[in-house]
Amino acid sequence: MIPLFNRNLFFLTFLSLLWAWQLMLALSFGLNQYPAVSALSSQVLPEWQYLLKPEWKPFIYHVVLMAGISFQVILLMLNRRHMETKDLLKAWGTYLIVEILLTCLWSSAAFKLIVYAARPDLARHAFIFLFVVILLCKGFYHRWQDWMRTWWKWCLYLKTDPPCRRIIEWGIPVLLCLLIFVPNVKGVIAREFIGEQFHHNDGSFMGPAWGYMSGQALDVDIISEYGIGIVVTISRLAQFFGGFSYEHVMSVMVLGTILYYIGWYMLIRRWFGSLLLALAAILLGIKWQMFHPGVYPFVFTYASATPMRFVYDVIYFWCLWMHLQTGRKSWLMGAGAACGFGIYYMTSEGIYGTASFGAYILLLLASTNWRQYFRLRLRDACLIFLPFGVALFLLALTLGPHIASAQFWNNIGEFINYFLSGFGLEPMYKTLLDHKYLESLMGFVLPMGYLLSLLILLSRVFLNFSLKEEWLAIVLCFYGLGTYHYYIARSTGTSYYAMILPFVFVLGFWIKMAINTLKENRRMPVRLILLGAVTWALITNHMFLAYPNILNLSSHPLTDPKVALTLPDGNPYFNHLFRNFNPALKLSINSLGGTQEEMLAEGDFADDNDLVDYYEKHSHFTRDVQLISSLTAHSEEVPLISSFETRILMLAHRKTFFYYFPLLISRPMTMHSFEVCSLYTTEQLAKTLNKFERVKPRYVFMERIFMVNEVPQAFLFQYPSLIPLINYVRTHYELVAQGEYLVALRRKG
Amino acid sequence: MVVIPFIFVALFWIQALLRLLKQSWQKGAKIFLSVWALIALMTGYLFTYYPNSLNLSGFDWAPEKKFYSEQFDFSRDAALIDALTLPQEKVALISSFETKILIQANRRPFFYYFPMMESEHMQGDKWRGLYIHTYARLLRTLNQLKEERPNHIFIQSRLWEGPDAQHFENTHEAFRQLMTYIRLQYQFQSKGQYLTALKLI
Question: Is this model's pTM higher than 0.90 or not?
Answer without folding.
Answer: no
